[in-house]
């Protein structure tokens, strides 16, 4: 699937606000791929497709988790988590996409221990794209100037703090990813 084909698909699939967010993620992921020497075309395609399943029917997505034998925890930590792994599966069924692209889409919400640098770029770009506006977003943007790893850790902390403040459960994989990226004392 080319970037143009991905763009067409997303324009038809997402509501306008989410489409605008997606264009922001594409722009940010592309810039970060250049900065950190990763495959730019993969970054652009993964960013364009990352929220493909965001508005799909929740029951349908839960069915895919069971059918595909995905982490059963996905059914216990809020439906927000479903669109990333389920989106990657549905896209892989219908389109010819590189494994690196599918991995970045799959991991963009929760992260994953040992995730690739392309995964890291999408994970951070999703949180800092220009349309994002929440307390602390500029601090995350500044971390990107230090290093990719620093930006990933800051984004994980931001995510975990946000969930703590809301008093909701934290997906174990996100905690594991945090532990994986923070250096041993
Ligand atoms: Fe997402
Ligand atoms: Fe997103």
UniProtKB/TrEMBL annotation:
It comes from the Bacteria. Residues 18-131 form the HD domain. Keywords: Hydrolase, Iron, Metal-binding, Nucleotide-binding. One of its GO terms (molecular function) is bis(5'-nucleosyl)-tetraphosphatase (symmetrical) activity. PROSITE patterns: HD. NCBIfam families: bis(5'-nucleosyl)-tetraphosphatase (symmetrical) YqeK. This is bis(5'-nucleosyl)-tetraphosphatase (symmetrical). It comes from Exiguobacterium profundum.
């Amino acid at each position: 699937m080319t970037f143009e084909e991905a763009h067409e698909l997303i324009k038809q699939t997402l509501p306008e606000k989410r489409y605008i967010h997606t264009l922001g993620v594409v722009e940010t992921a592309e810039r970060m791929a250049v900065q950190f020497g990763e495959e730019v075309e993969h970054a652009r395609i993964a960013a364009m497709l990352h929220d493909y399943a965001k508005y799909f029917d929740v029951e349908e997505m839960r069915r895919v988790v069971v059918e595909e034998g995905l982490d059963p925890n996905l059914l216990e930590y809020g439906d927000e988590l479903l669109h990333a792994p389920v989106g990657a599966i549905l896209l892989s069924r219908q389109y010819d996409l590189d494994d690196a692209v599918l991995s970045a889409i799959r991991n963009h919400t929760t992260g994953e221990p040992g995730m690739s640098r392309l995964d890291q770029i999408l994970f951070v770009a999703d949180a800092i794209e220009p349309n994002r506006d929440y307390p602390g977003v500029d601090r995350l943007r500044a971390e990107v100037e230090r290093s990719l790893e620093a930006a990933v850790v800051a984004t994980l902390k931001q995510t975990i703090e946000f969930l703590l403040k809301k008093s909701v459960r934290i997906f174990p994989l996100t905690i594991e990813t945090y532990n994986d990226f923070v250096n041993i004392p």
